[in-house]
User: Which sequence fits this backbone?
């Protein structure tokens, strides 16, 4: 491969209070990324408190002792910066990108909320953000065609007592129940310097950043007793096929497939990522070529992995069924392509094309300081190894045809498969809009009937 | 006590840090050449940016097509990479994948673009493929039909998506039926059904004029002579015969507003848990003398996170995940739109609050603090925008679409700094027209219809028909989104509502990638 992605050089140290600090200088542009990962995500939520980690993330923008409500964002924007925060199953992150001479502002703001959030906490602000988050749930899930699929994916692939069973957005009831006391307890438990990684990447001087971080974060006390989640391990497969038919306000049926996959960090998941590129990573991919281009039975296809560190990851995909095409035909073709990958090694040319695209993609991603900082924080938080930032591409490029075949064979099995079939609502609305078939009780004829019903309604809308 | 101890407040430092010394930033140098056939070539060498980006801007788009052929330019762009004289579609895709090159073509209202992103070491072979696609596409009938059918299916999907439904209904409401902007740039069912490979080819040939084209290339060139490559690959390109150059508008009017006055139009969506709100009117073209004042005004109204709309609807009331407003600046007067999705119960109060903020923008002078916040953001964020070759190319392509000089980017920060309170007030009074703003809602009218009627906001039109719909204008393609962390969507999250106030080029980014599949949902 003639091209190589530049190595990221960084320092990696811990403050006495346990805060992990990673600094990578890059003087190409006068910009800097400040990025904090807290080792807490929706998997840490207690029963009855789903959605809380994410609601909490919103509260982190509502002010701290020396920063008023909404002022964090105002200060960053006035400095010419951008910022956000996101919550996911395994973690929560907060990040700013700033003109490099404003790096201390980002550090100071992160320190102030890490130390003093509760001193500004009010019922009014919590209630306000609760409403915002409920509208986020409506906007991103409830009022969106096919919008429930991600929640269903997690609910089916992980058992009800596993912390990945529920989605990050949570439930309306649990959001309603969240109290000021919950916020305080969550903050005191998880928002401690020894549960965080701070990465600073860009046009800065390492010694100066270190001095500023000492000054702003150095006195924040650690929490010596952060509870551990215990054993999240799971059987590698579901142990049976799970099928659900969902009637939704959609004109075209769509099939979602979900599988338990190796945990994030396992090289077999790297192989599955490369497999995803070969299956659906663009116009040259197998699923696109067969379902969309040649047989023209699908409007679009996708397949991808969601990497999680506890128990299992998710590999999922979908195909939107063209009007008039039997749903089961699309599903069968999708399965055939997955099974082909599990039995025949991919060709050398397919693998080379996938590598070239992955490498170019990587080259583009790591150009931005924000992405580099986020990856350093991620690898440090999830794997205690920020150096993975320089190892992931070589890992991808060392995936073999046999490795892809093996992971496909282990993953794309009928007894490890969730099939969600979204069908247009039928005019005489069934009061029970959702049929759940339990594991091992696949009901293909049901899907077929509804598939034809859909085709009719599709034409009505088109008329 | 030492000074440091004095300013300590508990575990933290109370005093806000002062900024350090800014390091100057200049937009990269751009070398401009013009080939004998009229093609303009812009090249920016960006050491340390090894993923090269290249875009050919053809200044003809959906705004140049006759109404009966609406969607032909977009269809042609989608079909452009479906095969060339030397390669069929599969061979073309495979050849480009072997180079790690992603080829993408799009068409918008004002332009058609072909782009490629490729590692620097493979720039030349990638540009050769790019030239083959640009100059020798074959538009195979069968593939054009497939893409046409995909667009028809996409129109079905749009009916079910409240956001797209709102956008389409909004555009069809604020523009007169005779304007191009009344319809989606990718066409309506009626027009798309009639499109063929020949029509797509002719639409593309109309655009294929080197004297109206600009090639933009940026990245770490490492001494590669892009101008020479351009001469070799594009020097012999001539305008297809029988194509008459067009400058604008020959196909009819782009942007005539509808004459309905204040209208409240509701698309009934029974059981909808949110109402999608769109409020506004036909807005502005890109070529206006007060572009910078409009940028600052629109940032304060609905562009920044702390914009008046977002602060009121989200941070004060909790009605929405994000409220914003902005101008879509096109060759003609694109729409001005205020938007939010609110929970059904607060639909009418949210509409009233939005109207009140629009009115207040006209009536009340902004404060010095508001001015500084918007100005400092737009000026300060400038260097952050150009970290990648793709972003530099995007900005230059945006200028090319509108025939603007590079000086426009160089002067941008100084011009923004020159905007004052009076200029913002004038921009609001000149360009916000609350009296003739349309209000378009997609939601459950049974839940709020009575309150809406009582509010007396304008002529009420309720569309209870769930069946087929008139035109609608709109976004090109259904999003097929990869899942990921909550809030990770760039435009949403705790910072939702912060619509990125536009850069000097255009808000209709001609270089945006067309992503239809997801291959990874990994964090980060």
Assistant:
């Amino acid at each position: 491969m003639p091209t190589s992605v530049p190595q990221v050089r960084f320092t990696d140290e811990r403050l006495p209070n346990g805060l992990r600090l990673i600094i990578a200088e890059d003087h190409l542009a006068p910009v800097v990324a400040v990025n904090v990962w807290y080792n807490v995500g929706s998997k840490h939520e207690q029963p009855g408190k789903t959605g809380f980690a994410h609601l909490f993330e919103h509260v982190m923008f509502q002010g701290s002792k020396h920063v008023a409500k909404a002022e964090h964002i105002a200060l960053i924007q006035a400095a010419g910066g951008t910022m956000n925060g996101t919550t996911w199953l395994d973690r929560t992150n907060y990040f700013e990108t700033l003109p490099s001479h404003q790096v201390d502002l980002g550090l100071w703001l992160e320190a102030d909320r890490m130390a003093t959030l509760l001193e500004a906490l009010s019922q009014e602000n919590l209630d306000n953000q609760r409403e915002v988050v409920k509208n986020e749930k409506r906007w991103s899930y409830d009022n969106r065609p096919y919008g429930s699929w991600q929640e269903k994916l997690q609910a089916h692939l992980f058992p009800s007592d596993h912390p990945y069973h529920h989605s990050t957005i949570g439930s309306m009831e649990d959001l309603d129940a969240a109290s000021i006391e919950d916020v305080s307890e969550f903050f005191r438990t998880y928002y401690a310097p020894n549960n965080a990684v701070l990465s600073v990447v860009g046009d800065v001087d390492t010694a100066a950043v270190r001095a500023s971080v000492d000054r702003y974060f150095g006195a924040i006390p650690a929490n010596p007793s952060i509870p551990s989640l215990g054993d999240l391990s799971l059987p590698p497969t579901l142990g049976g096929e799970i099928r659900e038919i969902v009637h939704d306000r959609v004109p075209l049926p769509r099939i979602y497939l979900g599988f338990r996959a190796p945990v994030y960090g396992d090289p077999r998941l790297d192989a599955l990522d490369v497999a995803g590129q070969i299956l659906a990573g663009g116009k040259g991919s197998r699923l696109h070529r067969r379902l969309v281009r040649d047989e023209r039975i699908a409007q679009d296809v996708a397949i991808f992995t969601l990497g999680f560190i506890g128990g299992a990851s998710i590999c999922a995909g979908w195909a939107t069924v063209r009007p008039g095409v039997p749903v089961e035909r699309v599903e069968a073709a999708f399965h055939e392509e997955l099974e082909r990958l599990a039995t025949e090694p991919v060709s050398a040319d397919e693998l080379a094309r996938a590598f070239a695209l992955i490498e170019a993609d990587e080259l583009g991603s790591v150009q931005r300081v924000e992405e580099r900082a986020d990856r350093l924080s991620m690898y440090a938080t999830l794997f205690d190894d920020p150096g993975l930032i320089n190892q992931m591409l070589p890992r991808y490029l060392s995936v073999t045809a046999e490795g892809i075949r093996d992971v496909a064979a282990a993953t794309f099995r009928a007894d490890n498969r969730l099939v969600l079939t979204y069908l247009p609502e039928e005019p005489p609305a069934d009061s029970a809009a959702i049929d759940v078939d339990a594991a091992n009780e696949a009901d293909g004829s049901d899907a077929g009937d509804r598939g034809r019903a859909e085709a009719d309604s599709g034409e009505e809308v088109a008329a | 006590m030492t000074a440091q101890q004095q300013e300590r407040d508990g575990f933290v430092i109370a005093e806000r840090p002062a900024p350090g010394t800014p390091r100057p930033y200049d937009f990269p140098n751009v070398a401009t050449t013009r080939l004998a056939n009229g093609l303009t070539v812009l090249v920016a060498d960006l050491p340390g940016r090894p993923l090269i980006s290249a875009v050919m801007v053809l200044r003809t788009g959906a705004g140049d097509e006759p109404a009966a052929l609406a969607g032909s330019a977009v269809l042609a762009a989608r079909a452009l990479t479906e095969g060339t004289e030397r390669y069929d579609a599969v061979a073309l895709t495979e050849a480009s994948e072997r180079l790690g090159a992603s080829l993408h073509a799009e068409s918008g209202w004002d332009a058609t673009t072909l782009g490629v992103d490729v590692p620097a070491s493979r720039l030349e072979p990638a540009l050769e493929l790019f030239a083959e696609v640009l100059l020798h596409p074959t538009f195979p009938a069968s593939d054009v039909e497939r893409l046409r059918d995909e667009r028809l299916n996409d129109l079905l999907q749009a009916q079910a998506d409240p956001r797209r439904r709102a956008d389409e209904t909004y555009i069809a409401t604020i523009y007169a039926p005779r304007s191009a902007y009344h319809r989606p740039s990718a066409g309506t069912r009626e027009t798309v059904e009639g499109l063929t490979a020949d029509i797509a080819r002719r639409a593309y040939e109309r655009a294929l004029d080197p004297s109206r084209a600009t090639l933009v290339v940026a990245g770490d060139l490492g001494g590669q002579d892009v101008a020479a490559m351009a001469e070799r690959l594009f020097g012999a390109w001539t305008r297809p015969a029988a194509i008459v150059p067009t400058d604008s508008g020959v196909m009819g009017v782009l942007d005539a507003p509808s004459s309905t006055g204040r209208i409240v139009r509701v698309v009934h969506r029974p059981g909808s848990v949110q109402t999608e709100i769109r409020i506004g009117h036909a807005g502005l073209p890109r070529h206006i003398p007060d572009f910078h004042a409009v940028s600052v005004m629109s940032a304060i109204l609905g562009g920044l996170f702390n914009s008046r709309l977002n602060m009121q609807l989200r941070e004060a009331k909790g009605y929405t995940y994000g409220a914003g407003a902005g101008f879509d600046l096109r060759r003609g007067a694109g729409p001005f739109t205020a938007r939010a999705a609110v929970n059904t119960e607060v639909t009418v109060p949210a509409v009233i609050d939005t109207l009140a903020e629009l009115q207040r923008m006209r009536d009340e002078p902004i404060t010095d603090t508001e001015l500084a916040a918007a100005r400092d953001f737009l000026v300060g964020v400038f260097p952050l925008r150009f970290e990648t070759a793709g972003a530099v190319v995007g900005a230059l392509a945006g200028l090319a679409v509108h025939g603007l000089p590079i000086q426009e980017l160089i002067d941008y920060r100084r011009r923004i700094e020159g905007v004052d309170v009076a200029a913002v007030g004038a921009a609001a009074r000149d360009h916000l027209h609350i009296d003739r703003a349309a209000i378009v809602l997609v939601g459950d009218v049974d839940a709020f219809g009575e309150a809406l009627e009582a509010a007396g906001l304008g002529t009420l039109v309720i569309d209870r028909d769930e069946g087929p719909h008139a035109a609608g204008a709109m976004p090109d393609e259904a999003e097929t989104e990869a899942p990921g962390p909550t809030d990770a969507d760039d435009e949403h999250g705790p910072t939702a509502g912060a619509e990125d106030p536009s850069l000097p080029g255009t808000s209709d980014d001609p270089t945006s990638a067309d992503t239809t599949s997801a291959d990874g949902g990994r964090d980060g």
In short: Chain B touches chain A through 114 residues (CB under 8 Å).
